């Protein structure tokens, strides 16, 4: 478990090194309606209440880092399941709203043989995704 936490911390720390982000914003004050790989609505962050959330941003035609990040999340998911850690939700949110339809996101997950029991691939309209990223 300790390795999992360290690994996840390193991923998030590395992603944020280039810019300092304010830490005083409570994301629960915002609400974003996204769509999962099956076309179902997903209310972010409301549907994550009382869950450990592992959230990453991807785009499916990314040739290098996105597939590596997805693979790393898969390894973390496998470790979480092996250690029987409850209530963990994985989210991969696409920031390429022009390309990444729900169908494309579903195919992306299927090609990689991902376990979608606690992992959702999400998209939304451009303005919603841009607001969420900020």
Protein architecture, described:
The protein is of the alpha/beta class. The protein has a domain at 56-134: Glutaredoxin. Helix content is 37%, strand content 21%. It contains four helices and five strands. The chain has a five-stranded mixed β-sheet with strand order 2-1-5-4-3. Strand 4 (88-94), helix 3 (102-111) and strand 5 (119-123) form a beta-alpha-beta unit. The protein is globular. The chain starts with a helix and ends with a helix. The model has no long low-confidence stretch (mean pLDDT 86).
SSE blueprint and pairings:
Layout (H helix, E strand, L loop, with lengths): L1 H14 L16 E5 L4 E4 L7 E7 L6 H18 L5 E7 L7 H10 L7 E5 L2 H8 L1
Parallel strand pairs: 3-4, 4-5
Antiparallel strand pairs: 1-2, 1-5
SSE sequence, one letter per element: HEEEHEHEH
Q: How much helix, percentage-wise, in residues? A: 25-40%
Low-confidence stretches: none
The radius of gyration computed from the alpha-carbon positions, rounded to a whole number of angstroms, is 15 Å
Widest sheet: strand ordering: 2-1-5-4-3
Going by CATH, the homologous superfamily of the domain at 56-134 would be: Glutaredoxin
End-to-end CA span: 30 Å
Task: Supply the helix-strand structural class.
Answer: alpha/beta
The chain-level mean pLDDT equals 86
Apparent shape: globular
By CATH reckoning, the class of the domain at 56-134 would read Alpha Beta
Oligomer: single chain
Number of strand segments: 5
According to CATH, what is the topology of the domain at 56-134?
A: Glutaredoxin
How much beta, percentage-wise?
15-25%
């Amino acid at each position: 478990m300790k390795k999992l936490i360290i690994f996840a911390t390193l991923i998030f720390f590395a992603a944020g090194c280039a810019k300092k982000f304010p830490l005083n914003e409570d994301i629960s004050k915002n609400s974003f309606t996204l769509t999962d790989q099956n076309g179902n609505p997903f209310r972010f962050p409301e549907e994550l209440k009382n869950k450990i959330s592992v959230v990453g941003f991807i785009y499916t035609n990314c040739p290098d880092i996105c597939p590596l990040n997805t693979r790393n999340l898969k390894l973390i998911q496998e470790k979480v399941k092996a250690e029987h850690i409850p209530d963990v939700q994985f989210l991969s949110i696409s920031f390429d709203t022009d390309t990444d339809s729900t169908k494309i996101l579903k195919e992306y997950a299927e090609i990689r043989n991902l376990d979608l029991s606690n992992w959702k691939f999400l998209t939304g309209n451009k303005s919603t995704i841009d607001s969420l990223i900020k």
